[in-house]
Amino acid sequence: MDTNTLSAFIAVAESHSFSLAAQQLFITQSAVSKRIATLEEQLNQKLFDRIGRKVTLTEAGRELLPKAKTIVNAIKDAGRAMGNLSGVVKGPLSLAASHHISLHRLPPILRRFTKEYPEVQLSLRFDESEIAYNSVLHGDLELALITLAPKPDPAIHSKSIWVDQLKYVVAQDHPLASQKTVSLEELTHYSAILPGASTFTQQIVAEQFQKKSLNLNVAISTNYLDTIRMMVSIGLGWSLLPETMIDKSLTVLETGSEPIKRHLGYIHHRDRTLSNAASKLVDMLS
After folding, report:
1. In terms of residue numbers, what domain contains 131?
2. CA 57 to CA 16: how far, in whole Å?
3. How does residue 84 score in pLDDT terms, banded at 50, 70 and 90?
């Protein structure tokens, strides 16, 4: 049993496909099949059920998966720790960033980082904050730049870098646009356009309404803030947007309620040794 074999097992388990696993690992599908067959022989257990094109874990496979991830991540962590001793900044860096941060915060930082550390092989994913959060929590990513969770898992180290002041907004011709003040109760009578219910951003907003025993009236849900801004601007509903995204097509509503702030920053797993590359990127962010 070696890390290549376990990595193949993890890839098949997560993708539910031998062909997709082969693509992820940059090897042939037959090589993946051979590694799985070797692992099943070593453990004397069938790890996958193959019904047509569908690949699912057996009970033994489900039992092995978290242990396999722990082993692979521990070996990678040891490799990073040994590599860090040289002080050289190079090698792979797995990073995810939310769409908003990728568009509005990250470009100048990445430009500087890639110029200063050209030997770093940056693997950058654009994910929703919640997906990136779970990837860090489960050891699949070294770093993530996201909207920070209101109540993070104790295993997650988070650092706020930017703070978005969120404002209630409507289109200029919306019925509420002409009012000097608008209560949260009044907002519940109109359609809201917000990120999904599972997102950290909607959780922050919903908490303010829940404190007043009010329910959100969410008519449209999308996790792309630029899309939300467009839909609000054409009169499809109200929303909350960062001050930096508010333009002349929108009217800010004064609700008299406590200001809503959204913290953006980076996270990593507390038990994971950061590579020199990750540490340098964290230094730039800080």
Report:
1. 89-161+264-285
2. 8
3. low
